[in-house]
Amino acid sequence: MPVNGDGQSGIGNGAGPFSPRAGIPQAGIIDKSPLMKTMDDLSSGPGISSATRGPSTYFAEPTEHDDPSTSIRNLDLIAGADPVMQPRSPSVEFADSRREGLSTISGVFAPVALSMFSILLFMRMGFVVGQLGFLMTVLQLALSYMIVLLTVLSLCAISSNGAIEGGGVYYMISRSLGPEFGGAIGVLFFVANVFSCALYISGFTEALLNNIGNGQFPDSPTWRFIYCVLVSLILLVLCLLGAALFAKTALITFILISICYATWIFSVLFTGAFDVPIPKVNTPAYRVHSNDSDPDSPLIEDFNQTITARYTGFSFHTLAENMLTNYTMDYTTERPTDFALMFAIIFSGVTGLMAGANMSGELSRPSHSIPRGTIQAVITTFIVYICTAFLIAGTSSRNLLQNDYTVMMDTNFSKWFILVGIFSTTLFSSMSNLIGSSRVLSRLSHDRLFGFLLRPATIEVGDGNPIASVIIAWIFVVLVFLIGAMNKIAKLTSIFFLLSYMGVNVATLALELTSAPNFRPTFKFFSWHTCALGVFGTATMMLVVDASMSAIGVVSLLILIMVLHYQAPSLSSGSISQALIYHQVRKYLLLLDVRKEHVKFWRPQILLLVSRPASACPLMDFVNDLKKSGLYVIGHVRKGELNASEVVDPLHQVFPYWLSLVDYLKLKAFVELTLSENIRSGIQQLTRLSGLGAMKPNTVVIGFHEEVPTNATLQESQLLKDLRYSKIDRAAVVEYFTAGDYMPRELNGNIERLTNLDYVNILNDVIHMNKNLCISRHFHKLDKEALARGWNGGKRYIDVWPVDLQKPVETGLGFDNSSLFLLQLACILSMSSRWRVHARLRVFICVNSLQVIFLRHLKILYAIERFRKKTDFLFKSFLDNNRIIVYLQDMHRRERQLKNMLDTLRIKGESIVVPWDHVVCHFGPVNAAQPTQSRSTEQLPKAYLTAFNDMIKRYSEEAAITLLNLPLPSLDTQDNANKYLELVRLLTDSLPPTLLVYGVKSVISTSL
Description:
The chain is 52% helix and 8% strand. The chain contains 33 helices and 16 strands. Helix 3 packs across helix 8 (243-270) and helix 5 packs parallel to helix 14 (415-446). The chain is elongated and about 125 Å long. It starts with 33 loop residues before the first helix and ends in a 10-residue tail after the last strand. Belongs to the SLC12A transporter family. One of its GO terms (molecular function) is potassium:chloride symporter activity. Residues 114-607 form the Amino acid permease/ SLC12A domain.
């Protein structure tokens, strides 16, 4: 492409922007890097085709040594190309059912049902019915299950949309919403499972000590810690043995709980009325006044008395008494109950819906088993809870329900069945949390979201059992035992679970709203309405559980998202953010109407034509500053044609390297590549077709056609940044774009170059297509670090010379579109962050001094004298002091006009008026009949341009960049093209980085 960072197009160690090569024959390579060795190996066969030489140059038509079929085959050897980018026909692998995996019943239904029963079934239902009554209990159960069901519908939709691997909810969210949101949810879900596991084990230990041994076991904080660790060790061993044992444990536990529950049903049906003693743990029930005769005496606890409540057996009278609410007090906390508290208790007991999804990696058919098993478990547990609430409300008095939370155990014909049920559900729930947290941790480690920190968690044995993740999760559980204060972290655990459920709903909602064609879940019973209601429901539940804890959870989520955004690698699974952005961008691009453009809202939309990025990096970085929130497109033309024998378009192989280069340079730019038989046609294609809709380039930046290019290479550039993660390594990108720089020197004379005429014709093409034109030169000198240091410790300058060299008579009298465009670009550059701090804008206006004005008038008057023979009178009148004062005032007036113009245009800059007598005197005589007539560039005297160049060097010595008006290109002849380039070269030789500008449209508005 016709631009380099130094604006060159010649030859040398590296090719210039217009230097097509005729092929690289068999020859030695200077640098024996892996890339060069590969090229050596290839040199023994057919020559490397244009597709393998990198976009540093344009290649000539293939020679007899060039085999087009090798262009694609050999490219994957260049710079260690990523296998993803190999030019093979894409194929889709359809995941078959795993031969050995968990079934729907053992892998999903049983774990989900057991987790949703938890301790609510045997230890909390009596308390719930006693406070809420049967009707409100059914209402709250229905409301809780509606929220759960909405999340389940979203879960089923995601899980049935494709093959699912291990990691459960984290895997689903990260593959839908991206690694940042998915990773943050995954971490919180892991923490919630660890805390929940510790809570269940702690509850199991407490129940064990309270019901077995009659106080014979030592009971202290230290001993309780030891008991908890011992129980967790048993669970650790079970989890280490693998998912198969977990599934068997789930089935056995489910059968055992079913038997225990059946015994309670049997007791309800066949046990008559009797009095049930109130447990002694209900201390408020056993409090009496120290003085029976004095109601104001202090309360004391008297456990010598026996307090009972009536168990009536099933009775419609009892059912009627227990229909409505009757809020009293929770005797364990001695705090009053209300609707929100009871709803939080019910909802926290039915939130185990992810237990089956956590085992996604061990399921035989996860896309089939997760939806079916989860829904079956939800329906089953809901029916069981409704039946349990009905039977409890019809058999136990309100007094019994409010004062005995273990009413199911105390009314069963053998309390041991209920104890076994409590112990079984508690232990299995803790085991489910432990194995679920280990699967999430394992997937997090495999995705390398936290780098080396989680590397040990990738260790697996056998058929993929993540033993290291299980052990790490167990260690965290033990650490939670040391923390203690289980009740304080219980609410935070619920918040983390709710956040993960919200993530599932958000993921499904986003997929549904983007209308992605590949989002075709086999589960159809959902819509964006159910997803949105699920998000609202889980968010509401977070506030109901605890508003302050919800704030902590949300802040934790946001912090994790920000951390992962800056360090997490991109996953090959894609990100929903791209689909959402596409959906919105497409919609707004259709609304962006090119017919409604207005100069007030003009912004630069730049197409930068690049041939050899090795020397174009400073210019690419500069244009990134110049775009000012506008469009920035980097265009490249590859000379050649698409052969039918080639498997894929050769540019398809090149494109990832260009994108990686843009990433390493930290540019906000698009990349457009095209293949054309000649460079001129390719640039016409890019100029016409780059962009989309109303977002099309209005300015083309192109490098100057140098006689001899510099030898700058990409390795020398300090602009390449280090990226934590990239699909293509930085060294591979550098090698790829510098591959053509290592050809033998003796071949330089055989390199075909773009002619001067072709280059000038390209300039004319851009102007004829109504695009603003900028030519860059000397940008290899641009050093942003030097810009920050300043000139001798001070600021550098952005110097603007809005001088129309083809019409010097009008200089200083007004500004055309080209000069205003020049000022606009300079103003935009001065507004960018780095340039605003370290550079200052200066605008130079060239005017004739008093001496020049005097001489000009003298010549005019002398001519009149010869005609009228009145020399003495006219000469003396001209030397009058009043006339001299008028000319001095005219110079000051020009300076004020410039300042006023800058103020009107709202451009903050220093205005400088400089005399250019010694320059304009070389312009030659002006046609008296048409003094403002423009000369062609070829007619400009060399001395005139050289003098102007010397003046710029004198005034802009401290400039970081200079901006000049570009003389119009010449007509379509070889001689004119040669002379035009020679004159532009004289104009810009030895200057700082220079941008020559020609504007075709009005770009500045002074109106509101």
